[in-house]
Amino acid sequence: MTSGAAALQHAPFHRYQSIGGTHRIYLRYPLRVAPAEGDGVSIRRGCRKTLSDCEARQGDTDQFGGFPNTPYGLVKPKKTDHT
What we know:
The chain is mainly β. It folds into two domains: 1-43, no CATH class; 46-74, no CATH class. It is built from one helix and two strands. It has one helix spanning 51-57; strands at 13-19, 22-27. A hairpin with a 2-residue loop joins strand 1 and strand 2 (22-27). The chain is extended, with a radius of gyration of 17 Å. The protein starts with 12 loop residues before the first strand and ends in a 26-residue tail after the last helix.
């Protein structure tokens, strides 16, 4: 959000849907303050940290800083017990 009471909040979006000229963006989690009609919004594409995405979007695999051998979506944090 770039203006209004919800300004400076951000959240990754989960899904985009376009039906009959209406566009909807579903956020992964709710914002603390709901945006009002007319509030400014900035949307940008995220990075999945895959070599193929880097090559397709940027055309620059020399600067790639992700995980080339890990399938996106299969990386899950491992719980550890620090007692």
